[in-house]
Design goal:
The chain is an alpha+beta fold. It has four helices and five strands; from the N terminus they run E-E-E-E-H-H-E-H-H. It has a five-stranded mixed β-sheet. Helix 3 runs antiparallel to helix 4. It is elongated. The N and C termini lie far apart (73 Å).
């Protein structure tokens, strides 16, 4: 297995994450904080971020350094998972198959729909009055 020196980019909603994998002991650093500090009290999001490493059994073999910006905590976790999955896929063809089968290489296309002019929201309409 090899190191992935390149930064890989992951996206979800309005969040963008850049992650780099380096041979190590399994430390994950997000915006100069540990994963536990960054997603404090959110075990669900910590598990989301670790998912690509868990699927490929690489949790204790690589260190992850990541930078995340934009969006909320949920979309940041999704973007980070996408970036880590792209880095893991670069290690070997076998790893790529495992990550792809789990669905981590697909960018989630769901975005907030724009507000339409003359209306209160994206889908909401003002109440209709016949008279």
């Amino acid at each position: 297995m090899k190191n992935t020196k390149e930064l890989k980019t992951g996206r979800r909603k309005t969040s963008v994450a850049q992650a780099k994998l380096v041979k190590g002991t399994g430390n994950i650093t997000v915006n100069a904080k540990s994963l536990e500090d960054y997603f404090k009290g959110h075990a669900k999001y910590q598990a989301t971020v670790k998912a690509p490493l868990t699927v490929t059994n690489l949790e204790k073999e690589y260190d992850v350094t990541a930078k995340v910006q934009g969006g909320g905590i949920s979309s940041q976790a999704g973007a980070l998972r996408h970036a880590i999955a792209r880095s893991v896929a670069q290690i070997s063809e076998e790893m790529k198959k495992m990550v792809k089968k789990a669905g981590f290489l697909t960018r989630d296309p769901r975005m907030v729909e724009r507000k339409k002019p003359g209306q209160p929201g994206a889908r909401k309409r003002f109440q209709f009055s016949k008279r």
